[in-house]
Amino acid sequence: MSAAGSSPAASSSTKRLEGKVALVTGGATGIGEAIVRLFREHGAKVCIADIQDEAGQRLRDALGDQDVMFVHCDVTVEEDVSAAVDAAAERFGALDVMVNNAGITGNKVTDIRNVDFAEVRKVFDINVHGVFLGMKHAARVMIPQKRGSIVSLASVASAIGGMGPHGYTASKHAVVGLTKSVAGELGRHGVRVNCVSPYAVPTALSMPHLPQGARAGDALKDFLAFVGGEANLKGVDVMPKDVAEAVLYLASDEARYVSALNLMVDGGFTAVNHNLKAFED
């Protein structure tokens, strides 16, 4: 689905990333696309890094200006990540914001005895090692600048179990640990490191995990109905743009003294005891 949204472009007086340069991994579709579009609305020059070449180039062309570029990047390959960071810094003169968005869930397997360990390795390669490489090479540019913001995408699965496959849940816990550890190091250089943990967002990554019994026909409608039924905060459907807004905050100077934070975008889901639902009536 498109993450463009229908909100008007930010006015020049409210552009929160004016003059900044950002790189977004997995930026061609889903939450990554929403981040790219919102960052451009707020004045950032953006490098889209993704393995989906056609989608990435299509988004670059759709945005239609010289302040957006696309680079092919497999986040499990260090040379690709390093080259993407260098390409953004060389094209635009700096790197102010690194968004480690690329990630996968892995197959839904409810019995650990049947889990393919090769798939667990793949999930960790993308979700953890890819984030680590993004942090490493962003730091290479940001430390000499004495400034920067690194934002990684985690998940509600970073805080509780039962929200995804075992490998996925473990990987998102690891992203939070990396965020805190790297924030502890890079703070002395003026570089902030945070992560964002959304509840279930309707993207091509998450929608296949909808339980079979909840699928009736319209995939998006079914997904929102199921997720809304499980959510804590009613009357709001979390969308890619909502996650992008949280990333925008952490990337901007409005969060200039915020570091090592795991920002939950979950409507309170991970903070409440859902067993209490039995007593609501």
TrEMBL record:
Q: SUPFAM superfamilies this protein is in?
A: NAD(P)-binding Rossmann-fold domains (SSF51735)
MF terms in GO: xanthoxin dehydrogenase (NAD+) activity
Q: Which GO terms describe its cellular component?
A: cytosol
The similarity comment for this entry is: Belongs to the short-chain dehydrogenases/reductases (SDR) family.
Q: Which organism encodes this protein?
A: Panicum hallii var. hallii
Which GO biological process entries does UniProt record here? abscisic acid biosynthetic process
**PANTHER family cross-referenced by the UniProt entry:** SHORT-CHAIN DEHYDROGENASE REDUCTASE, SHORT-CHAIN DEHYDROGENASE_REDUCTASE FAMILY PROTEIN
Protein name per the record: Zerumbone synthase
Q: Which Pfam families match?
A: adh_short_C2
User: Where does the chain cross the membrane?
Assistant: none
